[in-house]
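Email to the structure team, subject: Alcohol dehydrogenase model.

Hi all, the expression group asked for a predicted structure before they design truncation constructs. Nothing fancy, just the tokens so they can compare against earlier work. One-line instruction: predict Alcohol dehydrogenase, return tokens.
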Amino acid sequence: MWESKVNIYNVFELRSRTLCYFGVGAINKIKDIASALKKEGRKKIIVVTDEVVYKVTGAWDVIEPALKENGIEWVMYTGVQPNPTVEQIDEATKMGKEIGAEAVIGIGGGSPIDTAKGVAILLEYTDKNATELYEQTFIPERAKPVIAINTTHGTGTEVDRFAVASILTKEYKPALAYDCIYPVYAIDDPALMVSLPHNQTKFTSIDAVNHVTEAATTLAASPYSILLARETIRLISRYLPEALAHPDNLVARYYLLYASTIAGISFDNGLLHYTHALEHPLSAVKPELPHGLGLAMLLPAVVKHIYPAVPEVLADIYEPIVPGLKGIPGEAEKIASGIEKWLFNLGITEKLSDFGFTKNDIPKLVELATTTPSLDLLLSLAPVKATKEVIREIYEDSLNPMS
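Reply from the structure team: attached below.
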């Protein structure tokens, strides 16, 4: 068992900073949140979302009356797109400054909430811009309060200290990790997710699978991050097919959302390594590539390469997907093929070559993975040393199906 391999002298952090309201009907807790903002004297806010999600989910039907009832004035930025950019953060920040926003509400999945986190920092550091923030030319210690209204079951950003944005001019997609951007409040209501499109249902759930695969196997992993990983994969393997077949099944949405949330807590504690560090260059170069799909393309190859270093952990947490593993190094090909088969059965059959990547692109991707700000930290936590050769091999193994 992997327990015997845990370094008991590794002092780790147990993190949980966000008050998250979870369950069907949780959106109604926005009334309590708005009341709390009023009591704190925060009567001007900026809402950060995209053109569709705040309406189609029904979230705004509850949020707007709550804000009005508490005399809270707002301005709304709806320009967030998948794989958000520093330009979008700057645009939203400008609107927030004009109204004198004292808090930020993000409505949506990872893109709007991550954008909201960037805005929350820049409303405090008014002489800085988003490029400076994501190039890490300064280290923020404060931000306006963030309220995360989550509408997908994948990112975990509603309960963690991470945010991501792209700097398109440099083809960078760095990540932030600051305590000041933990959302003060979060709402996880499965009823907001029944309208989630088929592909987003798949891709966001695979994002959660990757979060825990990495969090359970980093050099910072702990029994806590591994425990959460085990339950995350069990729940997703059970309920994702049901949600794909019956999108309005609230039980399936509930458990996928719960899996996503505990996956967010898992990697908030255990951190990440290869899959996210190698995916960020993919969607930085091709912003139209969904983050979760990029992760799915890489996952089998990443597991193949790290399995010999952490076979007990991966055999344990992947038991629901690839049963019967003994947790010995020689099973690397078996688990990688099993994960790929599971993804294919879900209809996620794309590999890097299907998205236009070729072997000629790999040197550039390797360079971006090793030079983009913040990704070096992720790679330093991998259970197998992240040399350029290993990174190249993972990209090459991800170009086409393994079998």
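Residues 223-245 form the longest helix (23 residues). The chain has a mean pLDDT of 96. Ping us if the truncation boundaries need rechecking.
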